[in-house]
Write a structure and sequence with these properties.
Layout lengths: L1 H10 L4 H12 L6 E6 L1 H8 L5 H14 L3 E5 L8 E3 L9 H7 L5 E2 L7 E4 L19 H4 L5 E6 L9 H9 L4 E6 L2 E4 L2 E4 L2 E6 L13 H9 L3 E4 L8 E5 H14 L13
Helix pairs in contact: 2-4, 7-9
């Protein structure tokens, strides 16, 4: 029933561009300069039933933001833990929108071989020349603080988690993760630019705990705080959800300091 309602709502608009433009405005995107997008189209595209090719579908999602002078940032993680990472050539291992953005002529991509980000828009240079830490000093996550950024989830429930939580874990000193350095060699325009990039990764030395994350409690806190504006139904994967970046981080920091196992699948006492 919820999917049917979403389809009827879409059919009342002139085009998919119009649907997203009006939806973003309804959700409150206007004051933001940066839009960090999480997406999963497997159910969402079927629900919309717009009969568009991938290129048109992705453009309909992004164009309303670019036309409103927003800069769009999308994860393009490749998880290249060894060998060579080429900023221009190494594909992402994520979804359709993630790969689409890498094909855009004006795209800029960050250098981290495991956790890279791509951006298009007037302020896309924010993702370039970052530090070597995936989640710490001079990372994308730190650079977006105080920059009027929002998250937008499309067809992906907030309960599935956000990478920002690893920035929070690192900033707050989570003892169930550690800093790992990777020897992957990074190239830009066929020129070697460096190695030794780091990530704050899960420990594997505690047999009784796998330290997998669980974002259910934390996501409920975001909803309870009233910072999530949303249309569609997350359980049906038809949602478009918008929530403030800085407010999200503040809530997650407080949550971790109150309960250092808040992001874990089962309890753990900090060392």
């Amino acid at each position: 029933m919820l999917i049917d309602n979403t389809m009827k709502k879409f059919e009342s608009y002139q085009s998919l561009d119009d649907y997203f433009s009006r939806t973003y405005n309804e959700l409150g995107v206007e004051p933001y300069q940066f839009c960090y997008i999480y997406s999963d189209f497997r159910a969402f595209a079927s629900c919309i039933n717009a009969n568009l090719e991938k290129e048109q579908f992705c453009e309909s999602i992004i164009n309303p933001l670019i036309n409103s002078k927003k800069t769009v940032i999308i994860p393009t993680f490749s998880y290249t833990t060894e060998g060579i990472f080429s900023i221009e050539k190494t594909p992402t291992h994520l979804g359709a929108l993630n790969s689409w953005i890498l094909s855009q002529p004006s795209v800029k991509r960050s250098e981290h071989p495991i956790f890279s980000f791509a951006a298009i828009g007037s302020k896309s240079s924010l993702v370039e020349n970052c530090g070597k830490s995936a989640f710490g000093k001079d990372s994308i996550h730190e650079r977006l603080r105080g920059k009027k950024c929002c998250f937008i989830n499309i067809g992906r429930p907030i309960e599935y988690g956000i990478t920002l939580l690893h920035n929070v874990e690192q900033s707050c000193g989570a003892s169930y993760r550690f800093h790992k350095t990777f020897k992957t060699r990074v190239f830009k325009e066929n020129e070697y630019i460096g190695s030794g990039y780091t990530a704050f990764v899960r420990r594997r030395d505690v047999p009784s705990h796998d330290f997998k994350f669980n974002f259910l409690k934390a996501s409920k806190m975001l909803y309870d705080a009233g910072i999530v504006n949303q249309v569609g139904e997350p359980t049906a994967l038809t949602n478009v959800s918008l929530y403030d970046y800085d407010k999200t981080r503040e809530i997650l920091v407080r949550a971790f300091l109150n309960d250092p196992a808040i992001f874990l699948s089962k309890p753990f006492i900090q060392n």
